[in-house]
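Spend some time on this chain, tokens included, and walk me through the fold:

. . .
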Amino acid sequence: MKYHLKNKDSKLIYKTGIIAKFICLLYFVFFSWQIIIHISEGEPLSTMIIPIILLLLSLLGILYRDYFVFNNIELNVVKVFGIYPFTAKQIINVQDIDKIVVTHFTKGSYNNDPNFKKKGKAYRAQLSFALRLKDETEEIIEIIDEKKSGGFSEAAAFKVSQYLGVEYYQDRSRDLDINVGIRDLK
């Protein structure tokens, strides 16, 4: 899922897009309609196990919450995730954040053999947008294909760093052909 940065009530909110929830809602309506039709025709529920499971999965997709609230007045970052109403909330103080980090890597392992051909989705360029805390841990906000990001994740990270007044670090500029694996980042 792709995240979007919104500015609401003097807060920056980085949350998943509405398209995924809309698609889950369409599936929910479709499976509900099919189950209602089959029940009205007199079929027992035991014959509709797979549509009921898909209906419940689409309902979980509708109720899923995953967003970050960056507040420069209260000087904190609030991470909310989970299935509504069972969401978890984590609060990170801005004083505990060392810097906002954007790192680029290639998905999959890197082979030094010059005859090795990197093909398919296994070796796509990726980027990671994270909060590096002062205790040397990272709170990863988003990992996304660099091509899907289109520079928006880097721009959102920079905007968040300016908004919170925290140092911004980007390992390199945007490039889709890199030879760095995820193991090389540590």
Notes: Strands lie at 3-8, 11-16, 64-71, 76-83, 86-93, 97-106, 125-133, 138-145, 167-170.
